Amino acid sequence: MSPGDLGEILKPFVFLDLLDSGNDRFPDFGLHPHSGLATLTYVAEGSISYEDTNGATGLVRAGGVEWMRAGNGVWHSGGAGDPGRTRGFQLWVALPAHLELGGSESLYQGAADIPQVGPARVLLGSYGGAASAIEAPSSINYLAVSLKAGETWLYEPPQDHSVLWVGLGKGTVEASNEALDHGEIVIFEAGADPVAFKALTDTEFMIGSAVRHPHDLVLGYYSVHTSAEALQAGEARIDEIRDTLVAKGRL
């Protein structure tokens, strides 16, 4: 999903990409900018390399995440890690007005850093008494769930969460009497009703719920803001960082 289509319906979740290198080497994305949003990349299998203009470099391996709150502007890159298949998801989250032009921050977590409740790993927000170490920019839950064939799981969203969706990364699962397949995004009706899942095969899926982002999305190429003025400020900061990277011979 992208900010110009399903992202407008599911905001603050505005972009979701299913990453899967298959038998090929994971591609290098190169340094690129963001402002006004946060990205969360979850690695389900394999590993990815990362670098950002906050000075961090390294590898995120299976079960780990890269969290990048861009704020008023940051550049980062991702690419191949260890040899072999890499699978995962990248999510963009629209930031509230008080954070969209704030400072940028980055946080990289290994699998052991992420709390787990039953089959659900808490990547963002809180669930079942466990909470992510990442400070969520607004009221958001984002979980990675793995079920074996025949297993069941119930998600009860917080009462104030009116946005709820599932993205299938592997296998087939039944929810609300519908079979959901690999690669599909399924949007649930607004409300806080629990959703029961039953794995029809070994399955992995991402589930997100949140209080709806109250602003229209004002879009740049790699940026999402709440107003044209904020977008202009974010893009100006991105250009400043670009000039620095050019001077260093990085671009």
Q: How many strands?
A: 23
Give the percentage of residues in beta strands: over 45%
Q: Give a short account of the largest sheet.
A: 6 strands, antiparallel
Average pLDDT metric: 93
The helicity comes to under 10%
Structural class: mainly beta
C-alpha end-to-end distance: 29 Å
* Helical run tally: 2
* SSE sequence, one letter per element: HEEEEEEEEEEEEEEEEEEEEEEEH
- Morphology: globular
Strand order of the largest sheet: 10-11-14-21-16-19
- Report Rg: 18 Å
The unreliable regions are: none
Write out key terms for the chains shown.
46% strand, five-stranded antiparallel β-sheet, mainly beta, 251 residues, six-stranded antiparallel β-sheet
Structure description:
- The mean pLDDT is 93.
- The protein has helices spanning 6-10, 228-247; strands spanning 13-20, 32-34, 37-45, 47-52, 57-61, 65-69, 74-80, 87-94, 105-109, 116-117, 120-124, 126-127, 130-131, 140-147, 152-155, 163-170, 172-175, 178-181, 185-187, 195-199, 203-210, 218-219, 224-225.
- Helix content is 10%, strand content 46%.
- With 251 residues, the chain is mainly β.
- The strands form six sheets. The protein has a six-stranded antiparallel beta sheet with strand order 10-11-14-21-16-19, with no helix packed on it. A five-stranded antiparallel beta sheet has the order 1-8-3-6-9. Strands 2-7-4-5 form a four-stranded antiparallel beta sheet.
- It contains two helices and 23 strands.
- A hairpin with a 4-residue loop joins strand 22 and strand 23.
